[in-house]
Amino acid sequence: MEVLSHYGPALCVKFFNGYVYTGYGPFIQVYDYHTGDLKNQCRIFETNKVHGVTFSNSGMALCYGSKSTSLMPLGELSKRSSLVEYERRIGEWIISAEFNYDNNGFFLLTCYNRVLSFDLLGNLIRKSAVYGEKSLLYSGSIKVVSSCKTYVNAGTVMGGIIIWDLFSESIVANLLGHSGSIFYVTMNNDGTLVTSCSDDRSVRLWDLKSQTELSVGWGHTARIWNLLFFNNDSRIISVSEDCTCRIWAVEDNKLLQMAIYEVHLSKNVWGVDVNEQDQIAITSGNDGRLKLIELQPISDSQQVFTLQEISTQSCMIFGKEEIIKGFHWFAFGLIAITSMGKVLKFDDNEGRWEFVLQSDLFTSYSVTNGITNANIVIFSNNKCDLLILKLDPCNGRIIDRQEMHINELSKTQNCMVCRHNSIQDCFLITLESPNPHDPFLCLKFDINTLQLENKYSFIKPVNFSSSCLEVYDSFLLVGSRFSTLAIFNFNNVEQEPYVFRRLTPGDTTTSIHFVEYSQNKHVFAVTNRDGYYTFIGANLDSVEFNGSLKCEVIHDNKISRGFLEGAIFEDSGDLITFGFKSELFYIYNESQCYEIASLVCGGAHRQWKFSRTPDGFILIYIRASSIYFAKIGVSALPRTLRCGTHGREIRDISILKDRKYKNGYLFCTASEDTTIKLCHIEEATGNISTFWTLRKHVSGLQRCKIINDKFMISSSAREELFLWQITTDCNSKPYVTLRQSLPIFCDNPDLRIMDFAVKFVETDAQGFLLATVYSDSAIKLWRYNHQESKFHLLLDGRYESCCLLNVSLFSLDDQLYIMITATNGCLVVYNITDLSNGGDLAPFPDVDCSIRTHQSGIHALDIAVDNTGHSVTAYTGGDDNGLGICYFHLDKFTNRLTPKIKDFQRNAASSTITSCKLLEGREQLLTTSVDQVLRRWSVAGDKLVLEEQRYTSIADTGSLDVVENLLVVGGVGLSVMKNEHH
Amino acid sequence: MGKSSKDKRDLYYRKAKEQGYRARSAFKLLQLNEEFHFLDDPELKRVVDLCAAPGSWSQVLSRKLFPESADQNEIEDRQIVAVDLQSMSPIDHVTTIQADITHPKTLQRIMEQFGNHQADLVCSDGAPDVTGLHDLDEYVQQQLIMSALQLTVCVLKKGGIFIAKIFRGRDIDLIYAQLGYLFDHVTCAKPRSSRGSSLEAFIVCQGYNPPLDWQPRLDANTSVAEFFQDCHAASYDVAHESRQIAPFMACGSLDSFDSDATY
Ligand SMILES: C[S@@+](CC[C@H](N)C(=O)[O-])C[C@H]1O[C@@H](n2cnc3c(N)ncnc32)[C@H](O)[C@@H]1O
C-alpha cells in the first residue's frame, strides 16, 4: 500500500527564498507561490506530522513534529521524495526549533520547558531549563536576538507566560493577564516586545523590560491559535478558530484591528506566515488548505464621490432632493442618471465627472441598463419611453442615439437588456407592464445602428414579475419573483411560455446563465436571492422539433449564508457567487469554497451594480447619497496553493465504481462538518478535485453512498436521509440534485439514521428497497418508486433500545434478509421475505437469528453471499479491537439461519475498528481503525491472516472505499493509496 | 469539556441529576466498578482522585467509603483526596486541592495529606482542553496519564490499583506497554456510559508491582520522562518502543443505558 496523494492538516507554513514550505502531514511540500505549482513533496518523518520548519542562512532546513526532528540541506528538500533517513527522535514533545545565532547549531524547546542545544552533527551539547518550572506547555518559541542573547517564550496552561534567558537559565519575565491556555507567544526582532494569544480570544502585547501588558486586542470570536510580528514589528497577524485571519497595527504600543480575512473552512487554522516583500500572507489548517492573502487593503482602490463633488466637477447644480437613480460601468468609466434626468459621465482615466445631457422624460423614475462590451446605455421610464445611447469606447462620448415610445404597453414597471450571445449584432430589451393582461414585450435592436429590428409580444404568465434575462438561440429565458422562470420562443410568439414555478423556496430569481450544451441538454444556472442556486437541463432542440420541452433541475444547492445576487463562471469553470451578507458585499468561489473578497458597503438595501472588468470586478454602490466605486483586482497570484478538503472528520467515502469519469473516478465524502463533497480522483496521480459542496444536511453526516451510476444517498441526525440524483453525462462537470427526502416521524434532533442499505430487486425495475437503522434502535424498510419519486414505508420495527450501527440487505435462495449490528456487540438477522411485497405497512418480523460476536459496538460490517447462494459471510470490526468472520447458513428444512463464528482476532487493532471492506475476489479484507493503521487481511478459507499493515497520518481514521487498486481513506483528511497486491 | 445541548438530552445526564451527582461521569466509575469491584473491597481505605472537578467521582468514592450506616471505627482511617486545576465545591469526607497534577509540587501536597500512609487506589479522569490538533491532544492526554502515574508510583501501595482515562488513538499501545512494567494486569475498559463514538476509554491497572531495582525519586527539576528513565516504563528511545495491546473489556451490564442511543 503506497500513498499516491494526501489531503489533510497542514500544521505550518513558511515563506523562504521565493517558495512556500508547508508541513503537510508527514511531508514537506514546496510550492512556487507565484504559479501555484507544487514543486516537490518530500516525506520527512515515518509517522509523525511536521509541526514546524525553520531555515538557516547557511542553507539548512530544520523540521520538527511530535518527538521527531530532522536537519537537512535545503536543496534536498526541494528534490528528494523522502528524507526519512534524517529523522531523529528525542524523549519529549518538541514545541519549537530555531538555529542559533551563528547557524552552527540549533535549539529545540520541549513541552517540559526545556531547551536542548545541538550542533549541526546532531550531538546534544547542552540541556537548559529554569528550575522548578516543569509543567506542561502548549506553546512556545525561541527568539535568537544576538550571539549572547536568546529568549525562550513559554506559554503555560495556567494562563501565564514565562520568558527566560536561555544562556543564564533565569526567568526574565512572568507575564500574567491571559486566562486559559496560551496557544502561541512570540517576540519582535530586537526582543523588546512580546505578543501572545490564547483560549481567552485576545491578542496581547507586552513590554518585556517592564513586564507590563501594553494592549489587549479583542476581535476574534474564538480561540486564537497563532500569530507573528511583521513589517518591522509594526503589524501583527493572527489566525483563529473563528476561521479568520486578522491584521493588527501596533501603534504607540496599542493594538488596532485593521483587517479581517475569512480563510478556512473549519476552526482549526494552525499556520500563518507573511512575505513582507510581496505583502502577502499565507495560512494553513486542518482542512488542508493553503490560502494566500494579499495584504493591500481593498479600500485602497475604493473611490467615493459626494453629490457636492460631482456637482462641482460637472458644473451642474443639483436640486434639493436630487439623487443618483441609476448607473452602469464601462471600460471608460461610468454613466449615471439623476432623479431629475441629468445624465452624467465619470471618466475613469481622468477621474472626473462631466455632464452629458438632460432629459425631462426621465425625471423621478428611470431604469438604467447597459451592454458593457458594446458601450450602449439604455434608460427607460414608467411611461414607455426609451433612450438608447451608443458611446465612444475610449472617452464615452455619445456617437449615436435612439429615442422611442412604445405604444403596445400602457405603462412599464421594468425594463431589462441582454446581448444576444449567439446572433452577433443584436441586443434585446424587454419591457413589462404592471397590467397582467399586457403582453411581455421584447424588442430586438441592431447593435451597430441601434435600429429596431423586431418586436415580440409574448404571452405573459400569471403572477409574473420579471427580474433577470438570458437569451439563447431562439429562446428568451426570464426569471421572476417567487423563484419562477419562463422560457419564451422567438419563433413562436403565440405559444404559451414554459413556466417553472418555485424552483427554490421562493424569493426573486437574480440571474440566469447559459452554461453548456451536451447530450441534448442545454444547461442553465439560475440564482435566487434566498441563497439557492439551481442548474436546469432543458432540451431546447425538442421545442423546435415537436413543440414539447423536456426540462429538469439537475443541480441545486444553497450558499453558506447571505443573499445571492448572481453568479459568474470563471474560465476554470469555477462558479463565483456574489451578494450581501449583513453589512458586507461578498464575492465567493463556490466551487472551491473560499472567499475572494468582501467589503463593507452597509448591506443590501441600496442602489448597486456589480460587474466584471478586464482586471477584476467593480462594485458601484450608493451609501448616504454618495457614490462608491470599489475595484477588486484579480490577483496575479493564485488564491490558494492547495484547496484541501473538509475541515473536520470525513465519516464516509463512496466511489462511483460502475463507470470511469474523465481520467479517474467520481466519489463523494460525507463529513462531520455537515457537508457532502462530490469529488474526482485522477487514477494515475491520485489527485483530488472538488466539484461541489452540498449543504443540505443540518447536522454531521453519518453515511453517504453512491448506490448506482445515477443515485447517491446520505444520512445524518434529525432523521435526515436524502436521495440525490447525479448527472454525469455533461461535458463540463457532474451535477447533483436532491431527488427526495425520507419522511420524518419525530422531532428529536438527536435521532440519527446511522446506516442504510439498498437492494435493487430484479422484478422491480421501477425502484429499489431501502433499509434504515436508527440511533433509537428502530429499523425501517422502504420501497422507493422512481415514477412517483416516493418512499413507501413497508416495515417499521425496533430491535431493542440500543443504538444500531450498520445494516445490510441480502437474499439467500428466494429469501430476503436484513442484517444489523448494534452497540451491544450483536449481529442480528431478520427474514423479511414475505413482508416486503405487500403495499401496506406490515409489523416487523421476529429475529431470525442473533449472535454476539463483539463485546461492544460493531462499527464495521461487510458481507458476501457465498457462491452457492445458501449462506452469507459477515466480516465485522468493533470497538473492542476485534475483527471477526461470521458465517450464516440457511437450513433448508427449518428455513432458518444458523450463525457460526469462523474466526475472531481479539487484538486485530489497538483501538476501535471503524470500517472494513472486502476486496474483489473475496480473498482479502481491508480495515481502518482509530489507531491510524490500515491493515490488509487475507480471509481465504475463513481465516484472518494479517498480510500488511501501514500507518496512516490521518487521525480519527474512519472511512474507506476501494475501486480497482485505488484505496481512498478518510478521517481528519483524505489519502489515496495504491494497493499493489491484488 | 463543556456541556453541549447533546449532554442535556442524555439519559445519564438526567440520571445523574436525579441521584445527586454533579456529572454523568459518575456512572463511568460505577460501571467500571461493576466489572472490577475495586470499590467493594472492605480494605479500601485511602483514595486519590486526580482531575476530579466538578467532583462526581469523588461523590461516588465518598458514598462508598463513608456509607451512612458505617460506624466510626470502620471509617476511621479512610481518606479521599481530590485534585483539580479548577476549584471544587466541598464534598463530605473529601479533601480537595486545587493544583496542576503535572506540577511536581502537587505531589508533595498530596503526600502531606496522607502522612506516612500509602494509597490503595489512584484514579484520574483527567482530560485536557481539546485543541483539534489530534497528535498534540493525544500527547497531552498521555502526559496527563504519565503525570498521574508519577504521583501514583509515589503514593500507591504494592498491589494497589490505578485507573485513568485514555484516548484510544495512535500510540495507545505504547502506554499499555509502559503500564505493563508496573502492574500485574492492565485492561482497557469501556463503560457503556462512555460514548462509543468517542475515543475515550479507561485503563484499569491492577496489582501494582514495580520493578524491584527501581526507586521512584521525585525532583522538581526532572520531567516525567526522566522520572521513569530508569524504570522500563519509559522506554522512549524509538528503537525500543515496545507496543502492546491491553485486553478490552466492556463495562456495565447490557441492560444499562446505551450512551450512543437516542431515547
Ligand atoms: C472530565 S473532567 C473530570 C470529571 C470528574 N471525574 C467528575 O466525575 O466530576 C476532567 C478534569 O480534568 C482536569 N484537569 C485537566 N488537566 C489537569 C491538570 N493538569 N491538573 C489537574 N486537573 C486537570 C480539568 O480541570 C477537568 O476538571
DSSP, total strands of chain A: 84
Mean pLDDT of chain A: 93
Structural classification of chain A:
mainly beta
Instruction: Examine the coordinates and then state which fold CATH places here, giving the name of the CATH topology of the domain at 2-297 in chain A.
Output: Methylamine Dehydrogenase, Chain H
Largest sheet of chain A: 5 strands, mixed
Describe this protein's structure.
- Chain A: It is found in: Cytoplasm.
- Chain A: Belongs to the WD repeat WDR6 family.
- Chain A: Keywords: Cytoplasm, Repeat, tRNA processing, WD repeat.
- Chain A: It holds the Pfam family WD40.
- Chain A: One of its GO terms (biological process) is tRNA methylation.
- The complex is a heterodimer of chains A (about 1000) and B (about 260).
- With about 1000 residues, chain A is mainly β.
- Chain A is flat and about 85 Å long.
- The model of chain A has no long low-confidence stretch (mean pLDDT about 95).
- In chain A, strand 31 (about 335-340) and strand 32 (about 340-345) form a beta hairpin.
- Chain A has a five-stranded mixed sheet, with no helix packed on it.
- Among the domains of chain A are: about 1-295, Methylamine Dehydrogenase, Chain H; about 305-460, Methylamine Dehydrogenase, Chain H; about 750-950, Methylamine Dehydrogenase, Chain H (7 Propeller).
- Chain A is built from three helices and 84 strands.
- Chain B is an alpha/beta fold.
- Helix content of chain B is about 30%, strand content about 20%.
- Chain B has nine helices and eight strands.
- Chain B has helices at about 5-10, 10-20, 25-35, 55-65, 70-75, 105-115, 135-155, 170-180, 225; strands at about 45-50, 80-85, 95-100, 120-125, 155-165, 185-190, 200-210, 250.
- Chain B has an eight-stranded mixed sheet, sandwiched between helices.
- In chain B, helix 7 links the parallel strand 4 and strand 5 (about 155-165).
- The model of chain B is unreliable at about 1-5 and about 235-240 (pLDDT under 50).
- Classes of the chains: A mainly beta (about 1000), B alpha/beta (about 260).
- The structure holds S-adenosylmethionine.
- The site of S-adenosylmethionine (SAM) has 24 residues of chain B, from helix 4 and strand 2.
